[in-house]
Amino acid sequence: xxxxxFKPIRINDLVxxxxxxxxxxxxxxxxxxxxxxxxxxxxxxxxxxxxGNASDLGEMIVNLIFNSVDAMPRGGKIDITTYMKDxxxxxxxxxxxxxxxxxxxxxxxxxxxTTKGLNYSGLGLSMSYGxxxxxxxxxxxxxxxxxxxxxTIILPKGKGVIEKRDKNVIxxxxxxxxNILVIDxxxxxxxxxxxxxxxxxxxxxxxxSAKDGIEAFKKGGYDMLITDLGMPNMSGWxxxxxxxxxxxxxxxxxxxxxxxxxxxxxxxxxxxxxxxxFQVNQIVQAVTNAVKSKDN
Length: 296
Description:
GO molecular function, one term: transferase activity, transferring phosphorus-containing groups
InterPro entries: CheY-like_superfamily, HATPase_C_sf, HATPase_dom, His_kinase_dom, Sig_transdc_His_kin-like_C, Sig_transdc_resp-reg_receiver
Radius of gyration: 20 Å
Distance between the termini: 46 Å
Number of helices: 10
Strand content: 15-25%
Number of domains: 2
Domain Response regulatory: 179-291
Structural class: alpha/beta
Shape: globular
Order of helices and strands: EHHEEHEEHHEEEHEHEHEHEH
Organism: marine sediment metagenome
Strand order of the largest sheet: 2-4-5-7-6
CATH architecture of the largest domain: 2-Layer Sandwich
Oligomer: single chain
Pfam family, one: HATPase_c
């Protein structure tokens, strides 16, 4: 059954946006540790259109890129290929990382299964598999220990007209530039938020620990806090409560995959919600609206 929210999408555009969005994790962060990871595009020249939810499919591609990055602790190469065959659109993401055993391969889409330790939920690939099923897609895995992994996504070819849009992935919105504190126990999400906001001209500091973030906030100088809701040791609600005691005028945003009512949001002193999976423009608009409302 086709979702009513499905729209025509250029798969190559989605790939390029996902690569740009994840740059802090596959390029910048490893480079700081002396590690080199490169992504090589092999994108079809013809226009490949699928029908789907761009936000969900973008999250799936991001998860697969993150999976490859995690599989290359000493660096390496990720190849991303798109092509059409038999009225289907193919997206292949390959790495030359550590690979997987057959046992791991068989369990890789199980919820909460992870080989990365206690700090990871193990939901990334499971969520990606769910997204793919909603799009009537298939996934094939080729992997060998020490020889890398390839995920091949197969989606039905879509039909439709796509309006032309600006090629800039992240449009810059003219507003007052502010200092923003980001707290998210998943370092990759924190880095993505920081990258998006920095491109808007804002100054950002990122912490993966609520305690460390609050200590930084106590030193002053922040106009806005953006925090994840579900974190170990301290929830986002508690973080907001503490920082508002320090500075009642600070703007606050919450990142969450949960459904939260407007009443609860206002009652607990949160100015805006960013729902996962989020899109770039959603974050930019939420911050812009909050800053403008403060100015008014």
